[in-house]
Every structure is written in structure tokens, then in C-alpha cells.
Design a protein that fits this description.
It is a single chain. This protein is of the alpha+beta class. It folds into 2 domains: 105 residues, no CATH class; 81 residues, no CATH class. Helix content is 38%, strand content 18%. The protein has a 3-stranded antiparallel sheet with strand order 1-2-3. Helix 1 runs antiparallel to helix 2. The radius of gyration is 49 Å and the shape is rod-shaped. About 10% of the residues have low confidence.
Length: 259
């Protein structure tokens, strides 16, 4: 395999092209001539390839030589164009490789850093502990799921739920049935309970809340309420007793002192 054609080799070829009679050339039999305005000129005779023993070959040689007068400069120009294109491509590849190297080094620097304990959620912008899910996004997802569930089945929501045996609660014997209702607590007892930090009552399953004014009567194992403090309801909660709707974290009014 021959060595790649460099600039010096191309320069030598172009020097021979420049030293030859001006082209283009045309052949006539075994002879070839220069032209003027594309017309063969007898007085611009250039040469011949006559072989009296093989005239067809002579004519083919003459046609090749005449065409080479134009073909060689065109081929040299194409080689020069491809060399320039290769040089441009090599420069682009070199720049890309340098960019990749810089980015790789930057990634290594970032990976070596110790992340902050508090990260910023890219979805909602809230802060969250490193390695833990964003609590705000989790809460919003739960709310969205609950709203969707209530829209699909209004009987499934925590509010305005009319419970029915066999649908919401298991069938029970008369001894197991929830016999109670809701006790309306007097103001004095409400103030006393509130002073202890108590804010209300929550069903063990977490779907029903009552405020201090509507104390659930001790129930069966299917609707068991227990006392809750403010810390148990970080997001607050609404009393589901009919026509109440009080926020369990709302402060109770100061009781009036009777003289």
C-alpha cells in the first residue's frame, strides 16, 4: 500500500501540470492536440502514441493522455478538498475530546463533594433530608390520591360517611354492636381537657376525628377512638361530627369567670 499523498506530492503533480501544454486536449486516432474554444487545432499538435502493430491500443492510449490533461488537475483539487475536510474534522474531534475531558474532571470533583444534609426538592422547591423522600411531595400525593378515591367512591371518604353493616363494617352480634354515639361535652370540661394539651379524638384507623366538644362514647373494636395531642396532627384535622367542622388545632375561647 502506497504512503498517503501529502502536500509535497500534490505540489510535484501540479508542477508537471503547469509545465505541460495548455489544455484541454483532445485525441484524434493515435495523436492528441490542444484546443481553442473546444475545437481541435492541427497546429497545436502535442504528441502521439502510435503503435503500428496495435492501432486500437494506440488510439486508447492517446485518448487517455488527452483526458488526463483535465482529469489530473480535477483529481488534485478533490484530494486537496478532502485533506482540508479531514483537517477540520480532526480539529472538531480534538475540541470535543477536550470538552469531554473537562466535563469528566468536573463530574469527579462534584462526586467528591459531601452533599448538604438538607436538599432542595426539584419538584416543589421545599427542603428535605438527604436520602429521604420529600415530605411535601409525599403529602400532596396522598391528598391527591384521597381526593381521587373520594371522587370515584363518595362513600369511601372520611367525611359525611354513612356507615352500613355488611358494606363498611363487619356483621356483628347485638353484644358487639356499637351502642354509643357522641357525647356533647360541657364548656367547663372542654376547657379542662384543653388545658392538658388534648385537642380531640381520632379513630384508630385514622379516618375519623372529633373535637373536644364531641366526645365519642366508648365504642366497639370497629370504631375505636383515642385521645390525640397537637403533635399527633402536624397537618391539623377537622371534626367530622355533623354540622361541626371545627379545626382540632384551633384555640378554644377563654372561659368566662363567674363572680
Amino acid at each position: 500500500m502506497s504512503a498517503p499523498m501529502g502536500e509535497q506530492r500534490l505540489a510535484e503533480i501540479l508542477a508537471r501540470v503547469g509545465a505541460a501544454a495548455p489544455g484541454p486536449w483532445v485525441s484524434d486516432g493515435a495523436e492528441f492536440y490542444g484546443t481553442l474554444g473546444g475545437v481541435l487545432m492541427i497546429d497545436l499538435w502535442v504528441g502521439e502514441t502510435l503503435d503500428i502493430d496495435d492501432l486500437p491500443q494506440s488510439e486508447a492510449n492517446a485518448a487517455f493522455v488527452a483526458a488526463a490533461r483535465s482529469d489530473v488537475p480535477e483529481l488534485v483539487a478533490e484530494v486537496q478538498r478532502l485533506l482540508a475536510e479531514r483537517h477540520s474534522t480532526n480539529e472538531a474531534l480534538s475540541d470535543a475530546a477536550e470538552t469531554i475531558r473537562v466535563q469528566r474532571d468536573r463530574i469527579a470533583e462534584l462526586e467528591a463533594l459531601t452533599p448538604a444534609p438538607i436538599q432542595t426538592c426539584q419538584t416543589c422547591g421545599a427542603g428535605y433530608n438527604l436520602g429521604q423522600p420529600c415530605q411535601v411531595c409525599a403529602y400532596r400525593a396522598l391528598v391527591a390520591a384521597e381526593l381521587k378515591r373520594q371522587a370515584e367512591d363518595p362513600h369511601a371518604g372520611p367525611l359525611h360517611h354513612a356507615y352500613e353493616l355488611g358494606r363498611d363494617l363487619p356483621e356483628v352480634t347485638p353484644q358487639q354492636e356499637w351502642r354509643g354515639g357522641t357525647e356533647l361535652v360541657p364548656d367547663r370540661e372542654i376547657y379542662a381537657l384543653a388545658a392538658t394539651g388534648l385537642v380531640g379524638y381520632r379513630q384508630n384507623q385514622g379516618r375519623l376525628l372529633h373535637c373536644l366538644a364531641h366526645k365519642p362514647v366508648p365504642a366497639s373494636r370497629y370504631a375505636d377512638f383515642h385521645e390525640v395531642m397537637a403533635d399527633d396532627l402536624p397537618d391539623g384535622g377537622i371534626c367530622v361530627y355533623r354540622h361541626c367542622g371545627r379545626d382540632l388545632l384551633a384555640q378554644w375561647p377563654t372561659p368566662e369567670v363567674t363572680p
